[in-house]
Amino acid sequence: MQWFRNLKIAHKLLGIFLIVGLTLGVVSLLSYYVNQRISQSIKEMYTDRLIPMSLLENIRSQNKEIEAITMEILLVHMDEARVSNRLGHRQERFERIDVLLADYEKGRLDDLERKWLAELKVEMTSYRYEQEQAIQLTLTQRQEVGYQYYSKKGIVHRDNMDALIGVMAEHSQELAAVQNWEASSLSLLSMFSIIFTSLLALLLVWLAFQFVNKLITRPLTHISLEVEAVAAGDLTGLEKQLPVESGDEIGILSRGLNKMSQTLSLSMQEMERKNQEIKFQAYHDWLTDLPNRRMFNEYLESLLVSMENEKVQRAIFFIDLDHFQDVNDMVDHNAGDSLLQFVADRLVKCLPQAELIARLGGDEFAAILPLEDGQTADRMTLAVLETIAQPYYIGNKEFNITTSLGISIWPHDGADVEALLSSADTAMKSAKHQGGNVCQYYTEAMRARIVKRLELANHLRQAIEKKSIQLYYQPKVNIKTWQITGMEALARWKDPELGWVSPAEFIPVADETGMIIPLGKLILELACRQNKSWQNAGLPALPVAVNISPREFQEPGFINSVMDILDKSRLESRWLELEITEEILMEKNQETIKTLGSLKQQGISISIDDFGTGYSSLNYLKRFSIDYLKIDKCFIDDIALNNRDAKLAESIIGLAKSLNLKVIAEGVETIEQLSCLKSYECDEIQGYFFSQPLPPSSFQELLASQEVVKHSSN
Predict the structure, then answer these.
(1) Is the dihedral of CA 578, 582, 587, 589 positive or negative?
(2) Are the CB atoms for 520 and 548 separated by under 8 Å?
(3) Rounded-to-integer distance, Cα 665 and Cα 658, Å
(4) DSSP character string of 196-246
(5) Max alpha carbon distance in the chain (Å)?
(6) For the segment 37-52, what is each residue's pLDDT rounded down to a tens digit?
(7) 408-437 pLDDT, tens per residue?
(8) What stretches of 107-154 show up as alpha helix (H) in DSSP?
(9) C-alpha to C-alpha distance for 678 and 713, rounded to whole angstroms
(10) Rounded distance, CA 534 to CA 526, Å?
């Protein structure tokens, strides 16, 4: 064995690995062969049995659809177009069966299967013929005749086909079970073979380990002891030189370790520097370099502990940018990141007395400020609001943004980090609800309002899930003929615990929480079903108007959702009108144009609700597909008393007429208002003067009677 000892370590290991490798190669080849056989067996089972079984099941499924179509033609009264449509569907199913039978026949079939296949084709031909005879009798004579003929002759062939398909599927299952047993046997043989060869390989590996331990491991023991000492933190021996006793790789390793020890001290210093960088990143925001939420919480917690005996109060500022998402939507996230960096710099400069300023995440910032000798935070809050509101210049664009500021005071508004931040956050949300760009100090009343709002949101969620939202309907009336021309569906909600809840309360909550999407879908569904129900009852067919929120309109699947509801309710699209706000028309113009165009192509009418209260613009009236303008109630209230309001209403009506749009005046309550609108040639009115919103039963009576008291303008 001396010659083996004199080999290089690589040669020694190579010899050992060759022996082990050959053994493992044999194991691998054996496993590969058995696995190939198993795979082939499974493939044959899949190709020869499972695919034919799937084809048979598909044929059965197609037969069921043909049966359903045939029964529909035989039993349901349909017009000629629909009968033609159903016959077309029936023909497609038969053609599909022909393709499936052809695919089945291409497989490897035994004699029994070919015999059954031939019988199945015969029964299929007879079944198709008897169906056609029954349908012909239905179309030329009476449905009863066609159905009786089909019941006597067609069903027999259908049952025969089902029986043949069942026998063929059962036969395939039996053959598949045999193939599965063969694969299992091969797997068992593979397992025993692999176990045996694996044990042999383990034995060879153990022998190789003994050689390596004797020829290589022991010489490395001295070196490993020195390395372990360094790994344990003992750096006192770094300058000690390891002995170099041989010229092989172990000797080379010893010399390398001696050289490495000379640079290890420098590496330790570099590692310490990296650790400091990692610690900085763990406690600071990557974008602004401000402290992050983790550092803010830990700092405030330690500060509260140290302030137990102090009299100096602390103000916690919770700062949230108003409408920051609009920057990302209008430009891109890079501009948003730059804006956040500018905001961070401004906060640091305008709050030099702050003990800590942090970015909590997104567009939220927080600051801790001392309040000494009865000092208030008013001056500092004003500085924050004014500083943030200054214009920002990013690239060649100017951005204007404001902030909502909430403040909690230690120790009055909380004794720990969580309570203080929660109070400041509550105050900030209160500032948001006021429209932003304001500061709010925390009060207990704020939390009570938040709790009430959360309670309302929970009840609303349950109401939507249980579909307990009700719809009232307010008629739209032609100002000349005094006839009802349409109706607006208005949501009403009576909660078992809260009682009647005003839409002015629950609609904003639904919009803030995202529940406006399922709520709007429910309202649209109820309105379409009710309208179709009235039409089926023989009442006059009228369009129903449903309000659509901006969030609903911007949903990717909005059009498909509307069409799905129309399809399920069987309401024609021309009897649906969608009321949108001017806000929708001002956002994402190209997408809005596309969406409105698609809705118009489907026959749905579009109206602008509360016209004049938003971003009224001739530009979008020309660009978008609009049918109606609804003048907001605020322009109608004083139309007979205030000349300015009268001129505004007259101008809006004239504008609409010039663009071939119809005008609906909302909130008409007096004869004087009606007279003015008549003189301005308004098309329709809506309001308490004619009728308040009515529950479905009352509105149905109104539609049924159409007996309207015509008020004289004299």
Answers:
(1) positive
(2) yes
(3) 17
(4) HHHHHHHHHHHHHHHHHIIIIIHHHHHHHHHHHHHHTT--TTTTPPPP---
(5) 130
(6) 666 665 665 566 677 7
(7) 998 888 888 888 998 999 899 888 888 888
(8) 111-140, 143-149
(9) 10
(10) 12
